[in-house]
UniProtKB/TrEMBL annotation:
Topology class, membrane: Multi-pass membrane protein
Entry's Gene Ontology BP terms: very long-chain fatty acid biosynthetic process
Protein name as it appears in the record: Putative acyl-CoA desaturase
Chief subcellular location: membrane
InterPro entries: Acyl-CoA_DS, FA_desaturase_dom
One MF annotation (Gene Ontology) recorded for this entry: oxidoreductase activity, acting on paired donors, with oxidation of a pair of donors resulting in the reduction of molecular oxygen to two molecules of water
Organism: Rosa chinensis
């Protein structure tokens, strides 16, 4: 623990800012895996490609179902063995430990699109997309101050274990893939798959706060973006999510594809998911931006008549 504190608290200075051990490790790791992904054309095989697709869904839905809707927002409950399974799948997305991921996301909702938001586009597209990953102090302030909002998860030994060991699980996954299928599996099923989903996830923070449409009165920059609704297993319906962050379902319309919700709904049907939270029609009517616009127009007409 003392060693970890030293890594986080002892900064070095270059490129006009402070960098600690976590920042440097993040730059090295993401650079290395991007470089490995560049080898994809030279190691293509169909088996490696389809394995990458399968793991893209397994680890990606792990993030969306476990880290996001289950742990961060408590949108539903599932048995502990299943909860832990999905969380372990999410670990292999290389997006941090459950404690760190949930802490950052809860801070995002607490301070959405303000200077305290861990990845607000107000600090520029690069920062909101990936730059925030390389700036530990802007995300957490200090090591002592980090993870202040995940006390519920810190009480669980399983999540504390994953917090301190998650990089080793990713490394072990790479070793297993290499032993099974050599460089094609390592390049495609690890590097390409991981990089693709990382940038899809990062785009929810950046693109979905810049481009898309708003249908709910959320007082922030969140947007619904159909492309990332598809690529991010339903997370691209981001304005829906910010309007009803507790909701297990994010694609509210029949045409808003939400693969994560389909799985949650299946688990509910077979009796494994309980306490599934959804917004009521009354709550939707209160939040609907179209209703607010209509109300303002009616008030405007009333004012005109009075004059």
């Amino acid at each position: 623990m003392a060693r970890l504190l030293w890594v986080v608290q002892k900064p070095v200075y270059f490129l006009g800012r402070q960098w600690n051990g976590v920042d440097i490790a993040s730059v090295f790791t993401l650079t290395a895996i991007h470089l490995l992904a560049l080898l994809a054309p030279f190691y293509f095989t169909w088996s490696a490609f389809w394995l990458a697709v399968v793991l893209y869904y397994v680890t990606g839905v792990g993030i969306t179902l476990s880290f996001h809707r289950n742990l961060a927002h408590k949108s539903f409950k599932i048995p502990k063995w299943l909860e832990y399974f999905f969380a372990y799948c999410a670990v292999h997305s290389l997006q941090g430990s459950p404690l760190e991921w949930v802490s950052s996301h809860r801070s995002h909702h607490q301070f959405t699109d303000t200077p305290s938001d861990p990845h607000t586009p107000l600090k520029g597209f690069w920062f909101s997309h990936i730059g925030w990953i390389f700036d530990f102090r802007k995300r957490f302030g200090s090591y002592d101050g980090r993870l202040y909002n995940v006390g519920d998860l810190k009480k669980r030994s399983y999540y504390k274990f994953l917090h301190y060991t998650y990089p080793y699980h990713c490394i072990a996954c790479g070793v297993v893939l290499y032993r099974i299928g050599g460089m094609p599996y390592l390049v495609w099923a690890l590097a390409v798959r991981t990089i693709f989903f990382l940038h899809v996830t990062f785009s929810i923070n950046s693109i979905c706060h810049i481009w898309g449409n708003q249908v709910w009165d959320t007082c922030d920059l969140s947007k619904n973006n159909w492309l990332f609704g598809l690529l991010a297993h339903g997370e691209g319906w981001h304005n829906n999510h910010h309007a009803f962050e507790y909701s297990a379902r994010q694609g509210f319309e029949w045409w808003q594809i939400d693969i994560t919700w389909y799985l949650i709904r299946f688990l509910e049907i077979v009796g494994l998911a309980t306490d599934v939270k959804l917004p009521t029609e009354l709550q939707k009517n209160r939040k609907a931006l179209s209703n607010k616009v209509s109300s303002m127009e009616q008030e405007g007409r009333s004012d005109t008549k009075v004059k």
